[in-house]
Design brief:
By secondary structure, the chain is mainly α. It contains 14 helices and no strands. It has helices at residues 2-28, 34-39, 45-55, 61-73, 87-122, 127-141, 144-158, 174-208, 211-218, 223-235, 237-260, 266-275, 279-307, 309-320. The radius of gyration is 24 Å and the shape is globular.
Length: 321
């Protein structure tokens, strides 16, 4: 267990360093003067020089990168040019909303995908399977921003049962909070559920023909116990692997969805930072989003070892060679 986690944490740290380096390099290599990009071409030269010295752009890139990493380790992501506030404070203020949307979208997609994927695999070729496959095709084809607009028109404008925009913090009550983010989460969850249903169906179809499933049936175990205890447990490795990619997709989709529903999260903040050319804020948001994705992938690795200990043993053998 220790060797497995040592290798996983080491890989995660190496990935964070690489992403931080390339994100820093890409932003520094943007065409034009970053200071002129932030202030505009009509800014007075003395103001531009002052900002350039303040941001350290008058120093070599490796000195700036070293200083940025040192500040990053100490939790200092710099000061936003646009807002005049620490980037870390801006992110901490908005990250609860983005995490709420991401996690609730993931939970909704799992709630839809697990039963529908199992039914589709167990009832292969039936009318239920065909109906689910038809819904999957719709979910895969419909972009989440278009689904979001349809949800606003139907649930907010026509039925008037959910708000079309705005955000209520969880400190003002769990129900108002969930109500304010239900439409954006549902918009994101549909496409992710469609992908998961296909993966769960394919994984279970492969598992259902295994010898141990035949043995479980001859032992007289109930269908529920065979499917949940044996088939689902052995067929979940593929879908859990896919969850890591889905979290990345959700974080990308949140940028669009937060703007459609006028939600003050990290996605909306990132879009404003890009539009206003606030490179320091963009840099801080990129590294925080990357760290979030890597952390979630680490947690998924823990799930792999809990579901299938053979993965952990194989990784330890490979690491000990």
């Amino acid at each position: 267990m220790g060797i497995f986690w040592f290798h996983r944490v080491r890989s995660a740290l190496l990935l964070i360093v690489l992403v931080s380096f390339f994100s820093f390099l890409v932003l520094m290599m943007l065409p034009g003067d970053p200071v002129q990009l932030m202030l505009g071409i009509e800014a007075p030269p003395e103001v531009a020089e002052e900002l350039r010295a303040q941001l350290g752009f008058d120093k070599p890139w490796y000195v700036r990168y070293g200083a940025w990493i040192w500040n990053l380790i100490h939790g200092d992501l710099g000061v936003s040019i646009l807002y005049g506030q620490p980037v870390s404070a801006l992110i901490l203020e908005r990250i609860p909303l983005t995490l709420s949307i991401t996690l609730l979208s993931l939970a909704l997609s799992l709630l839809l995908a697990l039963p529908l994927g199992m039914i589709s695999a167990v009832k292969k070729g039936s009318w239920a399977d065909k109906m689910i496959q038809w819904l999957v095709q719709i979910g895969l084809a419909a972009p989440n921003f278009w689904v979001g607009i349809l949800f606003i028109l139907f649930f907010a404008v026509h039925l008037k049962i959910l708000p079309p925009s705005g955000y209520t913090p969880i400190t003002e009550g769990l129900i108002p909070h969930l109500t304010s983010i239900l439409l954006p989460c549902s918009s994101l969850a549909l496409a992710e559920a469609a992908v998961l249903i296909r993966m769960i169906r394919a994984s279970l179809l492969e598992v259902l023909d295994r010898d141990y499933m035949t043995f479980a049936r001859t032992k007289g175990l109930s269908r529920f116990r065979r499917y949940t205890h044996y088939a689902l447990r052995n067929g979940l490795i593929g879908p859990i692997t896919l969850l890591g990619f889905q979290v990345m997709n959700l974080l990308g989709g949140v940028i669009v969805i937060e703007n459609i529903f006028a939600l003050p999260g990290l996605g909306r903040l990132l879009l404003i930072a890009v539009r206003q050319r606030d490179l320091i804020l963009v840099q801080g948001l990129v590294i925080v989003l990357t760290f979030t994705v890597i952390l979630i992938n680490l947690l998924l690795d823990l799930l792999y070892t809990l579901i299938d200990p053979r993965i952990k043993l194989q990784a330890e053998r490979n690491g000990s060679r």
